[in-house]
Amino acid sequence: MHEHLKRLVPVAAGPGPGRVLIFQGLRVRMGMASGTSSAEEVTFNASLGRVKYGGALMAAAKAIQDAAQGGMVLATSSTFKQLSVESLGSELLVISMGEHVLKAGEEAVQVYHLLNQALSYRAFHLGAVRSVAQSSLGILQAPYGQAAVCFMNAVGVGILEAWNPTVAAAALKLYQGCAQAALCQHGGYLMEAVDGLCLAAFGSAAAAVRWALDTLTRCLELDWPPELLEHELGEAVELMSVNNQGPTSPPAAARSLARASCEGIREVAGRATPPASSGRVYQLQVHKLLFRGLRVKVGIDYGPVHADLHAVTGRVTYRGKAMNRAARICGSAKSGQVWASSGAWHAAQHDLNNRVDSLSYGPAGAEQAAGGMSSAAAALPVAATNLGSFKLKGIKVQATSSPHSCPAQSQEW
Questions:
Q1: What average pLDDT score do residues 268-272 get?
Q2: Following DSSP, what letter does each residue of 318-361 receive, concatenated?
Q3: Does the pLDDT at position 164 exceed 90?
Q4: What is the pTM assigned to this prediction?
Q5: Has residue 52 got a pLDDT over 60?
Q6: CATH of 145-232+292-353, one of 3.40.50.2000, 3.30.420.10, 3.40.30.120, 3.30.70.1230
Q7: Backbone phi, psi, residue 282, to 5°
Q8: In 82-232, beta strands by DSSP E
């Protein structure tokens, strides 16, 4: 979106009719934080007759100021929450710049860019937030025009909350943290995250598919609450296959075992039996982990979208048929599956198996994306299964496919 807005409002060669002055003189930057954690942070200097602030409040204000470019006014969520709703949209333009780590070793914080409406064009010609790392995208990095919309949903959340609200809340926190951590690495923009829903948009359909597969893979490895793993909506489910290898030597059996252990989203390969001298018949047992923890499903569609800036939240909202189709595709998908429309799959399939392109989605490029992805999702090619045409609540969709990592468990559409 940033590049589109820069082209839409280009820098002029000089003053003239219809041109707006956005910079002149010194480039001043400001940082704003609000709230005090203790009375010791506010003291009165009698000699100067002034109130002095210190502690965590001053440290937060200094950190956010250091992250600003010249001409920026940045604020943390503590300040943003105190702005009146009446001022938002009428007097101020508030832009969410995403979540950033401002100092090494600290947690990420939400950063907002505040502008006077008369200087709104300035936002398109400023640099990025100067942070240590970025953990979620801001609106200037959000897709524009065409987008892959992903509805990711945890199945049976209402049942789990009625059964054990504490366990359900802990599980949802783990799931949302996993999905959102992978989201930034794949270049996705978070639109909504509430309960079991994680709604995201991508400029690349290939990135959307990779994110969905990567998140499902990561969820198998999460440290789920033990109580959840005893429930039918969270218990581990494995598929065991047995292959008779015939007369072979122990080294050959070991190589077969190694090959088998590389297959699938996650597999636990059993020992080749019996472990005896050469000439024996080896039986290879391979356990494929199909489910573990929350059951998650994904629906993806790709197409034109209309982007709007929400005046109160400072975030982008999208409208368009792709939003409705993705939601309905997700509603029809089964647990543990990624379903994509034919439009999404056709847009994704070329880049999906081009390793350089498929790893270059994140804000920091290919290196960041590859570093954050699980080895299975990063290395395995992706194929799909054609499931035919479906009619979902008045919308006819040619459902190509279920993208899935090869030779992994199939997640179909």
A1: 43
A2: EESHHHHHHHHHHHHPPTT-EEE-HHHHHHHHHHHT-HHHHT--
A3: yes
A4: 0.76
A5: yes
A6: 3.30.70.1230
A7: -100, 140
A8: 92-101, 109-116, 133-136, 146-154, 188-194, 197-202
